[in-house]
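Handout, tutorial session.
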Amino acid sequence: MSQPTAVGDAAPATMRAVVVTRPGDLDALEIKDVPVPALRPGWVRIKVKAFGVNESEVTTRKGESDPEVTYPRVPGIEGVGVIDQAPEDSGLRPGQQVATMMGGMGRSFDGSYAQYVTVPVTQVIPFETSLPWDVVGALPEMFQTAYGSLTTGLDLKAGQTLLIRGGTSTVGLSAATIAKDLGVTVISTTRQADRADELRAMGIDHPIVDDGKIAEKVRDLAPKGVDAALELVGCTVLPDTFGCVRAHGTVCFTGALAGQWTIPDFTPFMIPGGVRLTAYAGEASDLPAEVFQHQLQAIAEGRLKAPVAKVYHGLEQVRSAQAGVEAGTSPGKHVVLLDD
């Protein structure tokens, strides 16, 4: 068995982390001194530099997650930082920039709301960039979900037309930037008319105000229907989304921002003839390192935009960050930066 190697000075015995001892309101997010997690076989330890704050972590804090989540728990389903320790045969070196996400992180084992986190080698994505940590920290989960939805879910190609339903969500904004970089025409929705300009500023071709029935509006822009539709709002509007898609086009169900994950009395005949329905719920391994590196380079060159709503400094501001996520008034990712 290979032995771990350390970077620079040995890690301290204890670290600061945000811990949810039992579900509750924002006060349930407590900063505590806890032991630095020990390295286990096949895992790496990361010194956390930044992490995005997500709806699922709000759900964990409230106690509304599935039974996978146990307490006490350090939340955080994603993070970026540098390798602190890694097995010699992992291909990872101390000090290397890495991202990690998903795979039970912050749910079945402690996550990124901490100075250090340990994760399996298989969910580590190495990269090299001079972008600020707060920018990189916004990307892993939303870019992985967006990229996986557009590729695995939709097999999107240059020259096609894409509908994003739930366009002001972090995944919706990320999907739009990736699709535009690919050479796709993007139609994207918002429930608030005053946010249409925000979508245009992100490079979206056709913002649409979503009142629950948009098929006619979409068909005005794409008379035969769009080639692909990314469904992020959920089952409440899925039948209407079907009506936006051409025969042999595809709908990918990735999210349920409206909170409804099932359709009562569903029958396959609800799907228009020839329209394909897929779903996406992937892991870190679905975002290849070379793809993430390409996205970072595209951001550095100004071809992609990183939708960041607000940056918070230090674990002391995690409560404010989760409050910002719950308020939902600012498009983009809420990011916590851990200053050295």
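The second record follows below. Compare its token runs with those of the first.
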Amino acid sequence: MRILVLGGTAFVGRAIVEDALRTGAEVTLFGRGRTGTDLFPEVRRLIGDRDTGDYDALRHGSWDAVVDVSGYVPRHVGQAMDALGDRIGRYLFVSSHAVYQRAGVGPGSDEDTPRRPPVRDTEVLTEETYGPCKVACEDDVLARYGTRATLVRPGKVAGPYDTADSFTYWVRRAARGGRVALPGDPGQPVQIVDVRDLARLVVRLLADDRPGAFHAVGPAEPVTLGGLIETCARVAGSEVELVRVPDDDLPPFFPLVRPDRASQQRSPARARAAGMPATPLEVTAADVLAWDRARGEPPLETGFTAEEERARLARRDGV
């Protein structure tokens, strides 16, 4: 199978390329050529820039499938489809759970949950526009390719090479042990999908030429936020005491803390039936811990610093 990946050197794209190569697929990468230049030396690279609309490298060639991991606004997707035309088989768009409406959604919601209204008049991505822009992208892919379109909607993705810090924060913090400041409900459900499970799903859907929309959520067994932190500690061989601390003055999207529980309880049934594996949380946590330590545990951009955590714990204790 000949697969074109729009992106492919960052976290999710990297895992998809690795899995596709493992299955023997012939992979082509399209991107700016500025990151991951040491990755996949055997893979053909086409240079272009989605932000500037440079798709000249895609004007020639044909592929059995396209995986779009770097389309965030309708212009990205529309220009890519215009450049590719009918020289592709299936167009698989990696979307997001942010496409869904939040009100009136209960636990176990599936891929038919109502989505938010599409937004096409901005390319400034915020909490209010990110999901609606993805909705517009989905609509455009479906309108162009119909039954040749596939939508994968991941929840929170975790694993080695994660470019975000929210899962890595808890892996690292739990490994240190001791009293852990938690500005949220330890009983809150949380859904983490291992990036390798997401990649396996994507490649499986392409191999089966399967249309439709699919949730990529995990882990293997339902888990709470408190249970996740304790699992990370167990993997690291440490002991933790979870301490509920005030949640005022938190930055948006503190690692894995979400007031909307239903958004963390979506159904994985359709994706599981299509072949998505279910990696145990212990495995994901162990692999992230090993990767984080191997890279030297650089500063994280989210979560409490050590000083901030001490201050929160002192407030909690009335010191």
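Points raised in discussion: The mean pLDDT is 95.
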